[in-house]
Amino acid sequence: MARIPAPPGPSALAPRPQLEIRDLELVLALSAAGTTAGAASAMHVTQSAVSRALTQAEDRVGVRLFERTARGVAPTSAGERLIAGARLLLAELRDLEREVAAPAVAPTRLRLVCECATAYRWLPSAMASLRRRLPRLEVELALEHAEDPVGALVRGDLDVALLTTASLPSDRAARGALVARPLFSDEVVFVISASHPLAGRASLTRDDLRKSTLITGTNMPPAEAQRFMSSVFGRTKPRLDVLRFPLTEAVIDAARAGMGIAILSEWTAEVYLGGGDLLARRLSSGPLRRPWRIAYRRAAEGAVERLFAALETSAPRLYPRAG
């Protein structure tokens, strides 16, 4: 009779993680709420329990995860790294639980498009990584719906769209079928030649932009241009000198030639900044963020939750995010 081998001893097992699931849930709640009181309300525990749990989690990993401030709590760089992985780890664990409990089924397929093409700078590689981590979820880029992603969602031609300016319809039927939620933000930066007169500045002012030639693409949607103007200049509408080119490479080369200041997403600018001939600058008033939302058909909500967790930390960053 064949003998059943004894289970491996403790030395044969991989080291047990120090953090527990409740620690991941805690840092996500603190990140979302920004205060221990808000996290306590979301987790249905007392504020003192949240403070105690945070101290215990920090003791387990041996590093401070949140800084305590007068306004609440803000993640440290270590906390940011933990937050970035926590949502995806929890989503993968839920997937594993469902896979174990359910009979084998075909992979779920999502059709996705981006309203703004700048996301395609990194999205295909993110999809490849997602396919390795979540083999039961297949994402197809439906580029033919880029000009009208919301209309395609309404018609059912799309499952998911990444939006920057478009809004979902407000009628009752659309509200019942479609969902939109914040995803992340990218930063709009200003790219100049290293020999530009403003190259010595650490940041640029609104007056610098008013007095300079601005360089942008011809495909910037009117809603994007309007948001840029209101974000930078408020209610005033200065007359600006603007050069427009149909290709990103032309925008970059015009900036390199000293023809003006290029306005670009950090995702696009990042590729061109390694040579030392171009510099990226922020506004002196602070980073110029562009919010992205993920919109999807409610019927795909389960699969989209997995996609959301993966995309939330996939976008590259030119500048590290402050807590």
Automatic annotation (TrEMBL):
SUPFAM superfamilies: Periplasmic binding protein-like II, Winged helix' DNA-binding domain. GO terms for molecular function: DNA binding; DNA-binding transcription factor activity. Coiled coil: none annotated. Residues 19-76 form the HTH lysR-type domain. InterPro entries: LysR_HTH_N, LysR_subst-bd, WH-like_DNA-bd_sf, WH_DNA-bd_sf. Keywords: DNA-binding, Transcription, Transcription regulation. GO terms for cellular component: protein-DNA complex. Pfam families: HTH_1 (PF00126), LysR_substrate (PF03466). Belongs to the LysR transcriptional regulatory family. This is LysR family transcriptional regulator. The gene is lysR.
